[in-house]
């Protein structure tokens, strides 16, 4: 989960030969963040040093003026930048399978499979959703740069479910604005470890990059680069040692739901990074073959996405069925064959 990329409202650029300018408005939750950290959180496939150089070269403007990497942002600040691109010019198209829930002239809604990275980054140059989109569609927005064709928002590699893709920049802009203004309704389902105490509640914390493991996030106090994160949860069903949850993130921080479930003391099943343990095997349910896996990745699924259609402005909603590994675990829990203790 992450913040969307917002395309420019006008094509003007302060830098000759630079990429088209991109625009962000700083919301209350980002007030106090450094300019370079704010941009790094939105463009994780660009190195911090590249973004800092872009700021020093005056390719980033704050309220129309030059700024510095360490300048602290205020709510309402306007940031414009000529987005620097990683060295590769394009993403090669790859004939990867896509599960399409909906397609029209302006957007595509997909059911993302587990194990698929949304766009290329360091160490993952191929096999991405972006490469599959390049193969299947002739027209995609380029608002996020050449490495993110059509990509409005992201799901983690092993998170499945609904994801919307823009075919043109106007659609991208209008969808991104809805994400930034928290007008998009997102619903995830997860199976977590343990019996959650309350039937429903809010989790409101601050989240920042982990102090020791940079690929992780952690709950922290306010200040510095910490950003506000809010999640509403409801219990759908209870089992011995497990709980099926409905999660509704209000914000869209990186790994937010996984971090919040760990913070609650009920990590998502098989989430190796955030305390959910490793692969769930059939032996846990006294079944043969004992070593066979039930689920090998975090049991988290983007179930439903609702937004205003960027052309008709009507509210539309799309749902993705639970994937087979999620359903198998759920069926075993409902059968009551687990030996786990509450």
Automatic annotation (TrEMBL):
Compositionally biased region (Pro residues): 1-10
Catalytic activity: a uridine in RNA = a pseudouridine in RNA
Keywords, alphabetical: Isomerase, RNA-binding
Positions of the catalytic residues: 156
UniProt domain RNA-binding S4: residue ranges: 33-92
SMART domains noted in UniProt: S4
Name this protein carries in UniProt: Pseudouridine synthase
């Amino acid at each position: 989960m992450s913040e969307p990329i917002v395309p420019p409202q006008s094509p003007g650029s302060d830098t000759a030969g630079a990429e088209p300018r991109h625009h962000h408005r700083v919301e209350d939750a980002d007030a106090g963040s450094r300019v370079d950290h704010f941009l790094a959180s939105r463009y994780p496939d660009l190195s911090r040093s590249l973004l800092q150089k872009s700021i020093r070269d005056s390719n980033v403007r704050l309220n129309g003026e030059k700024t510095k990497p360490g300048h602290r942002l205020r709510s309402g600040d306007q940031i414009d930048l000529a987005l620097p691109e990683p060295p590769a010019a394009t993403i090669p198209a790859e004939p990867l399978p896509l599960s399409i829930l909906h397609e029209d002239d302006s957007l595509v809604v997909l059911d993302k499979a587990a194990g698929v990275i949304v766009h290329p980054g360091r160490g993952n140059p191929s096999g991405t959703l972006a490469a599959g989109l390049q193969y299947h569609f002739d027209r995609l927005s380029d608002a996020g740069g050449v490495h993110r064709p059509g990509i409005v928002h992201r799901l983690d590699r092993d998170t499945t479910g609904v994801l919307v893709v823009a075919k043109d920049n106007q659609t991208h802009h209008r969808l991104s604005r809805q994400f930034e203004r928290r007008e998009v309704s997102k619903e995830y389902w997860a199976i977590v470890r343990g019996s959650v105490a309350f039937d429903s509640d809010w989790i409101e914390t601050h989240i920042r990059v982990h102090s020791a493991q940079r690929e992780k996030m952690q709950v922290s106090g306010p200040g510095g680069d910490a950003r506000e994160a809010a999640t509403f949860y409801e219990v759908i069903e209870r089992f011995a040692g497990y709980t099926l949850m409905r999660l509704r993130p209000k914000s869209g921080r990186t790994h937010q739901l996984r971090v919040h479930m760990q913070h609650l003391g009920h990590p998502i099943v098989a989430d190796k990074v955030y305390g959910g343990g490793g692969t769930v095997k059939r032996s846990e349910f006294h079944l043969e073959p004992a070593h066979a896996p039930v689920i090998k990745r975090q049991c988290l699924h983007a179930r439903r996405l609702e937004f205003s259609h960027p052309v008709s402005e009507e509210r539309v909603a799309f749902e993705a069925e639970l994937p087979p590994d999620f359903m198998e675990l759920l069926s075993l829990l409902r059968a009551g064959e687990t030996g786990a203790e509450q």
